[in-house]
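Example (one chain per record):
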Amino acid sequence: MDQIISALIFPCLLVILFARITYNRYVALLLMVILIAASAKLGYTSSYWLIIVDAFSMTIGFILATYMLRRLKKSGSEF
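Predicted structure:
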C-alpha cells in the first residue's frame, strides 16, 4: 500500500522539482523516465500497476510543470 501512495506522490513532485532546476519540462520528464526505468530494472518495482501509477503521476507532474514554467515566463523572471 505504501508503494502505491509513494508512486502517486513522488514522481509528480520530482518532475516539478527537476523542471524547476533545469527550466525545461522535457528534460525533467526524461530524467524521471530514466529513474523509473532504473528502479524497474533493479527490481524495486514489483508490478506493472506501480509502473502505470508512476506514469500517471509523471503525467500530472508534467502538466503542473508546464503551468509553473508558463507562470515564471509571464512574471518576467529570466531563465
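Caption: DSSP finds three helices and no strands in the chain.
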